[in-house]
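User: Design a sequence. Structure:
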């Protein structure tokens, strides 16, 4: 098999059209041909730039958020610090460096990185094991899922993780809801509706009465993850921080997109060579966690959240310490916080155990 596209064509030829969730999952995580299995796709030399790669300020503030949360939890020792989808390891490195400011925080931590890509794991290991801060933590380990993290107090950070979880799409037709599938026509991948109406798709509240032609996205793994996080927060003190782009309330819309070399790319062309994502339904995650009893805060805009944590003051301190880089620091501040940058599209939601005070940025 020369490519993932060939693999998909053969599967469709033998088994019929595939769901978008199947297509998206394998396009990203196929063991040999998936996009995330290829290595470093981040930064200016890759396909896209995430907030930690824009500026150290982002990770430093998230690290302080975790340290304050740990203190509010009663400073438990031991405690787990978990990152879902750690990218290059840049965010965790910056978080741990900032965590040195609170005495005892790093000493209490066991750090767990949830990663499925061997190539990215190697990159993260290179980033983190070269940092002195990681050696202050009790342990550093890679796991395949939250179930592999020991029970007990925990802090979880998920930055641009949920948007890459696979989605199903359902389209409203005069005959009812039909799942949007991936088929092959003249050798090219195309969208096609399932032959039979789905009589009972599990749609988010508020989308059932959509108009004909409307598309609703459903992300079962996000619901499952929300429930799993809620259960963990009910079993032991903890806080979760979710940062991603998406919508605060469930609503119809086709948000599937692909990015390659910092440009939008047709998601049905050359699967496995571009990043595939869809907007996060924050309300869906919140409902799943709240259903188990966890407290839900937000979502709020990333810009306001970072400003409430003191990003402007941190930028001023960095510019004073390094005047020659002042313009770059200012540009990073604008990109992270402005409405024209990431300040509004990107949102932040926190989950917490009952009885804990509102997390920083949500007071």
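Assistant: Done.
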């Amino acid at each position: 098999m020369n490519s993932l596209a060939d693999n998909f064509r053969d599967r469709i030829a033998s088994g019929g059209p595939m769901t978008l969730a199947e297509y998206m999952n394998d396009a990203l995580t196929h063991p040999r041909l998936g996009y995330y299995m290829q290595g470093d796709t981040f930064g200016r030399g890759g396909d896209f730039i995430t907030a930690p790669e824009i500026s150290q300020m982002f990770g430093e503030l998230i690290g302080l958020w975790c340290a304050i949360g740990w203190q509010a939890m009663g400073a438990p020792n031991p405690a787990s610090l978990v990152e879902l989808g750690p990218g290059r390891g840049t965010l965790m490195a910056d978080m741990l460096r900032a965590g040195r400011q609170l005495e005892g925080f790093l000493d209490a931590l066991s750090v767990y990185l949830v990663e499925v890509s061997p190539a990215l794991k190697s990159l993260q290991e290179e980033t983190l094991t070269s940092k002195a801060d990681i050696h202050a933590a009790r342990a550093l380990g890679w796991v395949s899922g939250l179930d592999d993290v020991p029970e007990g107090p925990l802090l979880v950070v998920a930055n641009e993780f949920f948007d890459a979880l696979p989605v199903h799409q359902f389209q409203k037709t005069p005959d009812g809801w039909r799942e949007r599938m991936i088929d092959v026509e003249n050798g090219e991948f195309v969208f096609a509706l399932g032959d039979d109406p789905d009589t009972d798709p599990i749609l988010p509240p508020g989308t059932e009465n959509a108009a004909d032609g409307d598309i609703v996205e459903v992300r079962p793994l996000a619901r499952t993850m929300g429930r799993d996080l809620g259960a963990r927060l009910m079993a032991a003190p903890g806080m979760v921080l979710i940062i991603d782009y998406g919508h605060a309330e469930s609503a119809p819309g086709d948000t599937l997109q692909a990015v390659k070399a910092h440009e939008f790319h047709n998601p049905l062309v050359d699967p496995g060579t571009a990043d595939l994502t869809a907007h996060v339904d924050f309300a869906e995650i919140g409902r799943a966690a709240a259903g188990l009893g966890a407290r839900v805060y937000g979502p709020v805009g990333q810009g306001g959240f970072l400003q409430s944590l003191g990003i402007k003051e941190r930028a001023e301190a960095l510019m004073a310490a390094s005047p020659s880089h002042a313009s770059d620091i200012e540009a990073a501040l604008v990109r992270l916080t402005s409405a024209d940058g990431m300040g509004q599209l990107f949102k932040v939601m926190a989950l917490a155990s009952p009885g804990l005070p509102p997390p920083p940025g949500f007071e």
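Residues 37-166+218-351 form a domain with the Rossmann fold fold (CATH 3.40.50.12710). The first strand starts at residue 18 and ends at 19.
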